[in-house]
């Protein structure tokens, strides 16, 4: 669902930056910064799913965590309901967390092993003083049913569940407070292939029923394509391209997007031996990113200007940060 | 192309506190020289245990209890540890999933690379070092002369996996077992490693057992595929038949449940309900019974066997649904024998 022009965004990210200091020596002098997220901006509209993709170390998880203030941004704004999440007090943030929830990648480490499922799920309601014990209990039953788990599971501990079931519990916990926006940080990456589809379908159905807005972070392009309305492609802490899912997959404009799509093995043996651009080298260190366009060290089309000038993210609906964006014809 | 490896009804068991657990049951496949077979399946389906059994790298509580592994003329299932030492790293070598943990952090790349070369090829120190540098160059490591003296932590994941490949291929093995070699890597790096493996395969005619859960990688690399579920091979055929004409309900479910970038926009994924049965409590009949959309009363009680259905492509399936085809094939085969 492409956003309508007049619709107001649910959440606006403006020039978000997150730098981690590199400390050295006995007095822990700061000798540099790891630029995990460097000047990222995007809007999220109500009811849509924004996919954040990129390779490891591109800053997609840090961006996601900054949106719910699990990381304190170094600079920039995250505007949600007229408030800047990046600068409000923790007390105020705590209130807003009822509207902003997160689902984590690893369903094994994100559930407290010593708590029963019922208590785990009731905790957000109790903590925010939104319900009494018995009301919370009722609510837990409801939510468990919504995510497709039996309410008898309430008295069990996390270790008694499989990975897919645990991820359902993670989703249930995020739903307890009826949030508006859920950050899904690689929710299916740790799951087995046959289970991934169950969880993806569940997320899709819940979105329709409960009018949720998702930020879906993943490195698996297949899952991102399946669930997202728009996609932001990141590389080394920067946004390379932002467009609707259809545009990204059919007419990628940034060489990096093109290469990323191309690197993906296609499950069809008849497609073997197709022209594949394989880029050499590794992602440069975010502590010492290349000058100019961060992708120029691996870009097959890099010219002199790419080594000097940082390209600006520009465009109307299809934004791209490249001096020489690809034409809509495939290279 | 001669036959290199023949695994026949191999069964691997582990002794645990809760009793004996069968992790791999009746796994059979064969591999010719220079051929690549992919073992596909979810975690816990026994694909890694299969490869570790071939290499005799199982933990102390694990052992091959039945079946045979014929490698050339030797039966590895009953081989002694001394015999295995001569084979491991020399005739059969292995690449592991985690390039981060499978290199020794306190030894330099050179120390680790030359160890096998000196042991198996009896090279002098100097010659082994020169050869190692050649191998590193071959797998695309820049500045190989200086990287050889570095420790593993200095290298990125992709580079470490290249070192692992260099190490595995240095003694010119006849068989390479690659256990999820690209799973821990990013897609652009995965593309590099797959390209490298293809190139090296062409040059050296090494047979490969590639273990993966990614059907994209299978389509890219395999000649033959064995789909595994809960410790058994449920379908085995060549890669084209598998993708064009998958038969076993599990294979079908797997193919339909994977979101892929080439899928049409509005396609809804079909998921396989439920989850893999526990090793402690395997169903008596078909192991896919409680997740199968075509399950019959019979599947609950009887164990299906892996049987061939087609003549030309050698397509085998472990499912009662194809009993008629299996029967037809058997009849045809018998008729042929009578005729000749």
From TrEMBL, chain A:
Do the record's keywords include ATP-binding? yes
GO MF annotation list: ATP binding
Q: Which domain of life is it from?
A: Bacteria
What SUPFAM superfamilies does this protein map onto? P-loop containing nucleoside triphosphate hydrolases
Pfam families named in the record: ABC_tran (PF00005), oligo_HPY (PF08352)
Enumerate the Gene3D superfamilies for this protein: P-loop containing nucleotide triphosphate hydrolases
Q: Which UniProt keywords apply?
A: ATP-binding, Nucleotide-binding, Transport
- Annotated ranges, domain ABC transporter: 11-261
Family (UniProt):
Belongs to the ABC transporter superfamily.
Query: What is the name of the protein in this document?
Result: ABC transporter ATP-binding protein
UniProtKB/TrEMBL annotation, chain B:
Q: Which Pfam families match?
A: ABC_tran, oligo_HPY
Domain spans labelled ABC transporter: 5-255
- What is the recorded membrane topology of this protein? Peripheral membrane protein
- What organism does the record attribute this protein to? Sporolactobacillus kofuensis
The superkingdom listed in its UniProt entry is Bacteria
Give the family this protein belongs to, as stated in its UniProt record: Belongs to the ABC transporter superfamily.
CDD domains documented for this protein: ABC_NikE_OppD_transporters (cd03257)
Gene Ontology molecular function: ATP binding
Could you tell me which PANTHER family the record lists for this protein?
DIPEPTIDE TRANSPORT ATP-BINDING PROTEIN DPPD, OLIGOPEPTIDE TRANSPORT ATP-BINDING PROTEIN APPD
Please identify the protein, giving its name as recorded: ABC transporter ATP-binding protein
Q: Where in the cell is it found?
A: Cell membrane
Its main subcellular localisation, reduced to a broad class, is membrane
């Amino acid at each position: 669902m492409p956003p309508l022009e007049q619709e107001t965004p649910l959440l606006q990210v403006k020039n978000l930056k997150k730098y981690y200091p590199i400390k050295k020596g006995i007095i822990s002098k700061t000798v540099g910064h790891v630029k995990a997220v460097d000047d990222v901006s995007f809007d999220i509209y109500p009811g849509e799913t924004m996919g954040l993709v990129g390779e490891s170390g591109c800053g997609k998880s840090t961006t996601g965590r900054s949106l719910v203030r699990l990381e304190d941004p170094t600079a920039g704004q995250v505007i949600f309901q007229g408030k800047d999440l990046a600068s409000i007090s923790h007390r105020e943030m705590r209130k807003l967390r009822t509207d902003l929830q997160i689902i984590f990648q690893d369903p094994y480490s994100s559930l407290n092993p010593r708590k029963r499922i019922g208590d785990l799920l009731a905790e957000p309601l109790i903590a925010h003083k939104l319900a009494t014990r018995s009301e919370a209990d009722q609510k837990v039953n409801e939510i468990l049913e919504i995510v497709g788990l039996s309410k008898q599971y309430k008295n069990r501990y996390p270790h008694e569940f499989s990975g897919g079931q645990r991820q359902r519990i993670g989703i249930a916990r995020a739903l307890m407070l009826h949030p508006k926006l859920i950050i899904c940080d690689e929710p299916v990456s740790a799951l087995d292939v046959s289970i991934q589809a169950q969880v993806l379908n569940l997320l899709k159905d819940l979105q329709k029923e409960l009018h949720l807005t998702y930020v879906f972070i993943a490195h698996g392009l297949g899952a991102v394509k399946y669930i997202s309305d728009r996609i932001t492609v990141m590389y080394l802490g920067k946004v390379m391209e932002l467009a609707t899912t259809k545009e990204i997959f059919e007419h990628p404009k940034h060489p990096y997007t093109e290469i990323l799509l191309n690197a993906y093995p296609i499950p069809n043996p008849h497609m073997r031996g197709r022209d594949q651009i394989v880029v050499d080298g590794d992602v440069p260190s975010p502590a010492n990113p290349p000058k100019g366009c961060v992708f120029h060290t691996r870009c097959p089309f890099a010219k002199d200007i790419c080594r000097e000038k940082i390209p600006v993210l520009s465009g109307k609906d299809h934004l791209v940060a490249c001096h020489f964006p690809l034409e809509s014809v495939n290279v | 192309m001669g036959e290199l490896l023949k695994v026949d009804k191999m069964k691997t068991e582990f002794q645990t506190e809760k009793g004996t657990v069968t992790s791999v049951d009746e796994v059979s496949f064969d591999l010719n020289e220079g051929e690549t077979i992919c073992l596909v399946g979810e975690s816990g389906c026994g694909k890694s245990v299969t490869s570790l059994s071939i290499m005799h790298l199982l933990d102390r509580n694990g052992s091959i209890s039945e079946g045979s592994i014929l490698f050339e003329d030797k039966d590895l299932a009953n081989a002694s540890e001394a015999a295995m030492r001569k084979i491991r790293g020399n005739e059969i070598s292995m690449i592991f999933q985690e390039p981060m943990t499978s290199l020794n952090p306190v030894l330099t790349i050179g120390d680790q690379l030359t160890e096998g070369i000196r042991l198996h090829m009896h090279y002098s120190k100097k010659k082994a070092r020169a050869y190692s540098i050649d191998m590193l160059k071959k797998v695309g490591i820049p500045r190989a002369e200086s990287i050889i003296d570095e420790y593993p932590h200095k290298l990125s994941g992709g580079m470490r996996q290249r070192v692992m490949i260099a190490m595995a291929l240095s003694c010119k093995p006849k068989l390479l077992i690659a256990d999820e070699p690209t799973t821990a890597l990013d897609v652009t790096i995965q593309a590099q490693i797959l390209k490298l493996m293809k190139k090296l395969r062409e040059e050296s005619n090494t047979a490969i057992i590639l273990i993966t859960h990614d059907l994209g990688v299978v389509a890219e690399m395999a000649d033959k595929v064995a789909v595994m579920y809960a410790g058994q091979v449920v379908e085995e055929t060549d890669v084209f038949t598998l993708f064009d004409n998958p038969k076993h309900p599990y294979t079908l479910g797997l193919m339909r449940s994977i979101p892929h970038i080439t899928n049409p926009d509005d396609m809804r994924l079909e998921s396989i309900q439920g989850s893999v049965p526990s090793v402690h409590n395997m169903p008596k009949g078909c192991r896919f019974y409680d997740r199968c959309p075509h399950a019959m009363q019979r599947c609950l009680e009887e164990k299906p066997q892996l049987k061939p259905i087609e003549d030309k492509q050698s397509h085998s399936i472990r499912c009662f649904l194809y009993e008629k085809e299996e029967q037809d094939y058997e009849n045809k085969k018998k008729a042929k024998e009578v005729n000749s």
